[in-house]
Design goal:
5-stranded mixed beta sheet; two-stranded antiparallel ribbon; 30% helix; alpha/beta; globular
C-alpha cells in the first residue's frame, strides 16, 4: 500500500546519512531521477535558492537519487547545493517510499524514480506528499505547504 499522509516515514539510513538524526525537525525529502539532467538541476537549484527560507522554517532538505556518491559530489560542487544528497544506487530507499516505478519513454518501459517529494514532520510522520512533481516552481510549492 502506498505511503499516505500521517504514516510514519520509512527510515533512511546510509553510511553518510540517517533520517533519525533529524528527528525533532521537519524534513523535506525530494526524490529525483538523475543528477545533472535538466529537470533535476532545475529542481535542485530551486531548493538551493530557497534553502535559507527552508532553514528559517526549521526544515532540512534531503535529495535522493539512484546516482552513486561520486555523481552527487560533482552535482553538489557544480551547483553549490547546500543540503545533503543521499545515494540510493540499489533503490532500496525509493522502494520503501514507493517512488521506484515502471516508466515509459518512446514506447520503452523501464524502472526509475517517479519525481516525488515528502514533507516529514518533527515526529517522523509524513505531513505532505507531492507526487509526479514538475521541477519548475516546486520549491515554492513545498514552502507553501510548510507555512500551512
Amino acid at each position: 500500500m502506498p505511503l499516505q499522509v500521517g504514516d510514519k516515514a520509512p527510515d533512511i539510513k546510509t553510511s553518510e546519512f540517517s533520517l533519525a538524526s533529524l528527528k525533532g525537525q521537519r524534513v523535506v525529502v525530494f526524490f529525483f531521477p538523475k543528477a545533472d539532467t535538466p529537470g533535476c538541476t532545475k529542481e535542485a537549484c530551486e531548493f538551493r535558492d530557497a534553502s535559507k527560507t527552508f532553514s528559517k522554517k526549521k526544515a532540512a532538505i534531503i535529495g535522493i537519487s539512484p546516482d552513486k556518491p561520486a555523481a552527487h559530489a560533482k552535482f553538489v560542487a557544480k551547483y553549490s547545493l547546500p543540503y545533503t544528497l543521499v545515494a540510493d544506487p540499489d533503490h532500496a530507499i525509493a522502494e520503501a517510499y514507493g517512488v521506484w516505478k515502471e516508466k515509459s519513454m518512446y514506447g520503452r518501459k523501464y524502472m526509475g524514480i517517479e519525481r516525488t517529494t515528502f514533507v516529514i514532520d518533527e515526529k517522523g510522520r509524513i505531513a505532505h506528499i507531492f507526487a509526479k512533481v514538475h521541477p519548475a516552481g516546486h520549491a515554492a510549492e513545498v514552502l507553501e505547504a510548510l507555512a500551512g
